[in-house]
């Protein structure tokens, strides 16, 4: 019987990865587990929108007759970065997304987005399911995620994101520590009132050769043009998301007024939004986060668009556990990721990660080479950090 392959999935399914036979036409998902975990952060992380002291995350595991796979949902505890939050992600997954996935026949990673498309939005929840299906599919096939996505590097350059600290002295101490650790780029979280001074202090103390950028998480408005222009003399690699998500025109206006390159994060939730942002001249750099854009496959499409338009991209971070980090590292190994990502070693976030820890070597992380995402939760650690878990089986999803 001929198998129908959607045109845009050719790159994913029909290349020479050798798993055509086992996943041709897709498989049935037998069950999906939703698992809530809580990991204390080694240090509180303050941004313009709030302070995180622990990472509460939703993990998903899909089980097929051939094998299982893990995904991580990056929604935070509170809906402050975006409209998604972890309780909402678990609820929409349980009530809507899992039934769709479990009732579908012939599911593969390339079809997850269309299976889940009847549910509007909830990109982070959907991305976690797509990641889990990809992990299962590639693990069965013996192909690494990096290979599947088209990675061209075996290591990726790492940056570190520095939250808003209580004082300038505290900031300088934290930055000094990260530079000693070997991070290749420093990103400072900024907000109105915490911007020019910290940037100047870091430049004065550590010099002009440190690659430095700032992230405003949309905390400025058009009235702040002069304040943002005051950052120009500091040779920042970029300023990330100065204005609100939906203000493409404002970002385009700002781009004409200041010399620091503008990068968008929250504004870009899909390939279409990336295209519109670039067409509008709203940014010249793009932060790509798989969760924010609905999955790794959409992330690669945005990467491809940016490469075609000569726009630099880098991989953002959402305080992921080792699972999500492994996927980010694989993505960041694609050729268009020419700037260091918000991809730090496990010990930047947690005393104990749920996977084998990612360790910085010369400011870089190794791209996992094992099949699938390349790492798995360590059972004992996973149990220790689990708050709750529930599983839906195929026969329970019907009706
Ligand atoms: O290293 O994972 C990391 C954190 C990088 O600063 C970072 N992420 O706005 O990009 C961001 C920010 C963030 C953190 C966003 C937590 C949402 C939640």
What would you say this structure looks like, in words?
The protein has helices spanning 10-13, 20-23, 86-103, 109-116, 123-141, 145-149, 168-181, 196-206, 225-229, 248-257, 271-280, 296-308, 322-332, 379-385, 394-397; strands at 29-47, 50-64, 68-73, 155-157, 159-162, 185-189, 212-215, 239-240, 262-264, 285-288, 312-315, 364-366, 386-393. By secondary structure, the chain is an alpha/beta fold. The chain has two domains: 29-142 and 379-398, 2-Layer Sandwich (Enolase-like, domain 1), CATH 3.30.390; 147-366, Alpha-Beta Barrel (TIM Barrel), CATH 3.20.20.120. Strands 5-6-7-8-9-10-11 form a seven-stranded parallel beta sheet. Strands 3-2-1-13 form a four-stranded antiparallel beta sheet. It has a two-stranded antiparallel ribbon with strand order 4-12. Helix 7 (168-181) packs across helix 8. The longest helix has 19 residues, at 123-141. The structure holds N-succinyl phenylglycine. The site of N-succinyl phenylglycine (NPG) has 13 residues, from loops. N-succinyl phenylglycine is lined by residues 47, 76, 81, 161, 215, 217, 265, 316-319, 342, 344.
């Amino acid at each position: 019987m001929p198998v129908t392959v959607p045109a845009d999935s050719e790159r994913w399914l029909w290349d020479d990865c050798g798993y055509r036979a086992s996943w041709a036409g897709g498989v049935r998902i037998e069950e999906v587990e939703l698992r809530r975990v809580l990991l204390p952060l080694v240090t509180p992380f303050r941004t313009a929108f709030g302070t995180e002291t622990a990472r509460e995350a939703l993990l998903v595991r899909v089980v097929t007759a051939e094998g299982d796979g893990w995904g991580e949902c990056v929604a935070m505890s509170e809906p402050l970065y975006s409209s998604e939050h972890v309780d909402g992600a678990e609820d929409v997954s349980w009530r809507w997304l899992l039934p769709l996935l479990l009732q579908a026949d012939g599911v593969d990673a390339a079809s997850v987005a269309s299976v889940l498309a009847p549910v509007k939005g909830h990109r982070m929840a959907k991305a976690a399911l797509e990641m889990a299906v990809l992990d299962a599919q590639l693990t069965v096939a013996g192909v690494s995620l990096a290979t599947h996505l088209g990675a061209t590097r075996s290591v990726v350059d790492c940056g570190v994101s520095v939250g808003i600290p209580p004082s300038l002295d505290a900031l300088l101490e934290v930055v000094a520590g990260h530079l000693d650790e070997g991070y290749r780029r420093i990103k400072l979280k900024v907000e109105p009132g915490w911007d020019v001074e910290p940037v100047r202090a870091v430049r004065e103390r550590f010099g002009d050769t440190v690659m430095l950028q700032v992230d405003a998480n949309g905390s400025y408005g058009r009235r702040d043009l002069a304040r943002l222009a005051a950052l120009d003399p500091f040779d920042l690699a970029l300023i990330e998301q100065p204005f609100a998500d939906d203000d493409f025109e404002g970002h385009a206006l700002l781009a004409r007024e200041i010399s620091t390159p503008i990068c968008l994060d929250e504004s870009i939730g899909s390939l279409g939004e990336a295209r519109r942002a670039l067409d509008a001249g709203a940014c010249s750099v793009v932060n790509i986060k798989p969760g924010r854009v609905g999955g790794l496959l959409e992330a690669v499409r945005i990467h491809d668009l940016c490469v075609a338009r000569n726009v630099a991209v880098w991989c953002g971070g959402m305080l992921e556990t080792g699972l999500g980090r492994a996927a980010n590292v694989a993505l960041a190994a694609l050729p268009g990721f020419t700037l260091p990502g918000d991809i730090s070693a496990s010990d930047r976030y947690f005393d104990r990660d749920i996977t084998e820890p990612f360790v910085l070597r010369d400011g870089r992380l190794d791209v996992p080479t094992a099949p699938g995402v390349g790492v798995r939760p360590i059972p004992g650690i996973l149990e220790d950090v689990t708050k709750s878990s529930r599983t839906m089986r195929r026969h329970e999803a019907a009706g």
